[in-house]
Amino acid sequence: MQAEYTTCREFVNELCSSAPTPGGGGASALCGAIAAALGGMVASLTIGKKKYAEVEPMMIELQSRLNKIQDEMLGLIDEDAEAFKPLSQAYKLPKETAEDIAYREDVLEKCLADACQVPIKIMEKCCEAMDAVAVLAEHGSQMAVSDAAAGMILCKAALKAASLNVFINTKSMKNRLEADSFNAKAREMLYIYESKADGTYEKVLKELTTTKKKAADGQFDYDKYFSQGGFAQDLASQFDI
Length: 241
Fold this sequence. Notes:
By secondary structure, the protein is mainly α. Helix content is 76%, strand content 0%. Helix 2 (24-46) runs antiparallel to helix 3, helix 3 (56-90) packs antiparallel against helix 4 and helix 4 runs antiparallel to helix 5 (145-170). The chain is elongated.
């Protein structure tokens, strides 16, 4: 992230201004970085717990991978801003003569293609993060399973938002073969990973909203649960007390 954005407040204040950057691409990258950080948190909360000793090597590897993705996502905020600058300048080129128009179209075509590269990278990093977070939702600390699911949904949002930055640029490209190539990459990632994120979310949602302890009549017996130490036992098992 750019040095001048020392706080989230500064970033969002700049985002809501009339400044050309940051925009949707930078916001997507930041959202992806936050999603990766949530996954890293789940790994951190799992590492060192006796209950999860068997999966600790995997947790350490996933934590390292997500930390790297988080840093790369923050770097893509700057990359997106840098890629947009030439495009914004290209739109200002003169179009008084036929030569002006031809030159402007050539420059715009290159700038549009270049501007597609960063959101494609953001989408790819989102997919990498989702692959890692899906494993964390399955094998990480169950005390943080909601955070894993939140990371997946934030990744999905970043993925979809970044795709719009691809599509708005390819729409204006004259080289339809190249445009279709960018579109195909984006659509393939959306097709695979939207459903992956939804699957994790729905699974976790079901786990969190399905009552496992029920009285004979099918209703949850809170008095019995607490009086017989059910809550304390559940809490102790989660924290290895």
